[in-house]
Design a protein that fits this description.
Radius of gyration of chain A: 19 Å
Number of helices of chain A: 8
Oligomer: homodimer
Number of strands of chain A: 14
Strand content of chain A: 15-25%
Strand order of the largest sheet of chain A: 1-2-4-3-5-6
Distance between the termini of chain A: 30 Å
Helix content of chain A: 25-40%
């Protein structure tokens, strides 16, 4: 497949230049880095920073805005940013009230973000973090399944709720506590129909058979734990909803995220969302808030993920519904 | 490629149910029709209606909102809605100040929308229309090229400017006049790297060679007028900008729309947008407003279109920048 790029080595830099051209009213890129900042940083609030490898657009820069993130750092495709750049972002975003790092639970991401946190603290900055591990996929080792708990698309609910909480004046300790509560109520499961392309090599991210759906894929081209024949959107929605609801007790009120992973058409995403709506109603579960679209992609992988957040507190819903100018939240 | 659908015959209906589930706070579907309406219609303003075949999501329902459209009608995939349903939408949306139909310039669309306008007038409704023909592709007949002037992605600028004008109290005659001015300042050219899929038959929309780019494709799988080897995003941006600027005299201030047609990654779209930004600056043209993303797709066609709107009046920019809750405008 033709890739609409220029030189290989310029991909990430030109993506960042492009997005900060389109949203020049609200985003600024720090030249020669993967750092994108809110153009007008707000004083007297905790700064919120997230980031990760490129290839997940509109994550993460799409979530910079009032009541969401203050800055993001994009690394190379599927590779987290360096501790050095994360440290620089902390220094730039800090407004005297401390900085919260929102980290997706991958070893390489944890390592670099926590190293930056350590270095920033040595320099006198107040920094803490929340680790998002919403993925309820499993990994098989000789027939034994164990949970993976990677950080995937549900992260955007964490950005929104913590972002609004920071806007309303919560301090760093309160945000860490709230973040842990939200993360523990959040589950995501993703499937793929095609592997998508590694933007740097133009090779498939992994090998997949035709007419099957792969359960539990990751966002960096990690293969799923099981392939099954694809029957219908409704059949798939039923499987995903049941696997997700198994993570809860008798929770009955949810925020729902249907996330396209790159090449699923919006038609397919809405058809799937309609199945989710009907099946949740059948199980007497309320969808109190819902999103559908491309929120965290894996380049052009054709697939979908479903996230459920149990709305344990009424104000979480208010925070999800609050206005923001983050362009990817809609 | 696996299609994430249920039964063939239910595609459009389930898409409409899905999108009105996701945006149930602001959109309502009229059951058993392709009609989607703004949930809270605003009194004492001209109603704005658009629509067309399905397969272009988020067009057109994504442009329903404050300061944009009041209703849309979705037909079968790549087939315009019937005059009967368009008439029903007029009757439902009308708030006593008349209705403006925004029609994309395809023969079948014109026929059905204008038949509905005629019937509505016989019933006593005040209705008029604007035809959008932003496409500056050409069609070749034995070596002679003639312009096609179909209605394509630039339509969303027309929805926004006329929508804001209607919100600010312009009457039907004024909107028709303004619509013609905006359309005459608007040009779009689209290219494809792959044909995309007919969602109903699961066949390619047209045949294309590998590693080429097809110029002047339509939004319903119409083939382009010329295939060329693909060199780079920058080379492509340069070609498109020059072809578009040829449509103008010395206009120097534009609104810019980079539109992904379905399967182009956001990375590729932003890389292309960055090239557009640099090349416009080189030609001393100002990009005063810009959008990038999927605004009018052709199912999963991999391609891109570029639209330029010459900002002949300063208030057009104000109208483009005005807030709206139409979910696809961002």
């Amino acid at each position: 497949m033709t890739r609409m790029i220029n030189k290989q080595k310029d991909i990430v830099s030109q993506v960042l230049n492009g997005v900060t051209y389109i949203y020049k009213d609200r985003l600024t890129r720090i030249p020669k880095t993967g750092i994108v900042l809110k153009k007008k940083l707000v004083k007297n609030k905790v700064a919120l920073i997230s980031g990760g490898g490129s290839g997940h657009e509109p994550a993460h820069f799409g979530y910079i805005g009032n009541g969401m993130l203050d800055g993001t750092i994009s690394g190379p495709v599927f590779t987290p940013p360096s501790a050095k750049e994360i440290l620089e972002a902390i220094q730039l975003a800090d407004q005297g009230c401390g900085t919260l790092l929102i980290i997706k639970n991958f070893e390489a991401d944890r390592t670099n973000f926590l190293e930056a946190q350590k270095q920033a603290k040595l320099l006198g900055y107040k920094v803490d973090h929340v680790i998002v591990d919403d993925d309820c996929s499993v990994v098989s080792d000789r027939g034994e399944y164990s949970p993976r708990r990677r950080g995937v698309a549900g992260s955007v609910f964490v950005h929104k709720i913590l972002g609004q909480a920071a806007k309303e004046g919560r301090n760093l300790e309160e945000l860490v506590k709230l973040g842990k509560e939200v993360v523990s109520s959040l589950n995501t499961l993703g499937v793929a129909f095609s592997s998508g392309t590694d933007m740097e090599t133009n090779e498939p991210l992994f090998n997949m058979n035709q007419h099957v759906v792969s359960f539990g894929i990751g966002i960096h081209g990690e293969q799923g734990y099981r392939e099954e024949v694809f029957y219908s959107s409704e059949h798939l929605a039923n499987e995903l909803i049941n696997k997700l609801l198994n993570q809860y007790q008798d929770d009955d009120r949810f925020a729902v995220l249907v996330n396209g992973t790159g090449s699923s058409t919006l038609m397919e995403q809405y058809i799937f969302a309609n199945d989710v709506d009907r099946l949740l109603k059948l199980q007497q579960k309320e969808s109190a808030f819902q999103l559908c679209g491309e929120f965290m992609t894996s380049t052009d992988m054709k697939g979908i993920s479903l996230s459920l957040l149990s709305l344990k507190e009424e104000y979480w819903l208010d925070y999800l519904q609050a206005d923001t100018d983050a362009f990817a939240w809609r």
